[in-house]
Amino acid sequence: MNKTAPSGNTLTLLACQIEIPQTPTVAQRDIHLEKSAEAVCAEAAAVEGRVDLIVLPELSSINYSYDTFSRLSDLAEPLDGASFKTWRQVAIKTGAHVCYSFARIDESGFFISVAVVDPAGRHLGHYDKLHLAQFGASRERDHFQRGNHLFTFLVNGFRLAPIICYDIRIPELSRALVIYHGVDVILHCGAYFRDKSFYTWHHFAVTRAIENQVFLLSLNRAGSSFGQSLYCPPWQDDETTPLNFDDTKEDFREIKLDRRTLVDVRRNYSFLRDRLPNYDLSSI
What we know:
The chain has 7 helices and 12 strands. By secondary structure, the protein is an alpha/beta fold. The chain has a 6-stranded mixed β-sheet with strand order 5-4-3-2-1-12. It has a 6-stranded mixed β-sheet with strand order 6-7-8-9-10-11, covered by helices on one side.
């Protein structure tokens, strides 16, 4: 399925707002992975031209629920587990990088993780969620440990970094990725349940994209209690607005990022250049 190689000035994403069923057993998890892979491959094949990167939402291998989290000793995976094996085959078949999320286990405990596999099927690295949500419908600290590192990777000359759900509400993380790690695209993978915090999430995503002058994909899972993913360009006005996904249904969107857009925005609007070197002004 490999298509014409990209020019280096554009990056084509396939953003997959997929629905994730109940996954109380390993067998049901693996059936879900197989069906998701089939759907993603079909969508990638339908794209005219090349897909450079396929992106899945937070914990794309399992249902987000207390019951599922109570079964992590069975459902969580090592880095080379079922999710890696599934998305590795998708990457090889489609010729695209794949960014997927899963519950990771190692000797120190459980983590909410995002990993990336390249078109040759190689594991490029992973990110463990730094900020664990403990409000509304989320009780992540009861089950998971927080991560301790960042992860960036290159696709077609664009530097990308994953962050996960609650991470978007902590501005220092996105700013550090841009300022200290040269990130052009933030991949914000979420599992946003429609509790009282749901309706503030989009404002954070829009703000992070504009203030950091980056492309930002904020990708939720589908379902009656989830949905409404959005893609945010680095500048927005009455003519340039975020791309909104379906309110609840599965929705696969092809999104083209252009290097010239990023260059022009950062040249015309000097937000990042106008930062002071230090905001500890207490001595003045």
